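Hi there,

I know you've been waiting on this one. I reran it after we fixed the sequence typo, so this is the corrected version. Both the input and the resulting structure follow.
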Amino acid sequence: MVVLIKRGLVWRLLSLTIGLLAMSIVSNLNWLKAQERQVVEIVAERFSFTPSEIRVPVGTALELRIRSHDTMHGFRIVGRNVNLTVPKRRQGEVVVFFEASEAGRFRFECSRLCGAGHNLMQGEIVVVEE
């Protein structure tokens, strides 16, 4: 059996295939970018978190690594099921995963009484549209 295809048709099919492949690659890269994990190291010390504001675009997967430079602290994200104890200096860190799936402000605070300025110990994760 012999199949004859015009040369112009072959080029059109080849161009279409390459175009679809390129679109697929770009789509996969966008998906991978959305799945990348951004690591943020947070230090809890003397009634503050550093940094106290974390700004990310929607779709970011955050990995928060929290350690203390002084006493034990807590780390709670208000309205989320996150409430952990941060061990005192040189005794490790806690890791929190946060999916920034929607725009908004998400407050975090110390959830363990740590001294006179405990109520000042807070910060925000700010999730913005790109």
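Quick highlight: Residues 71 and 88 are 4 Å apart (CA to CA).

Best,
R. S.
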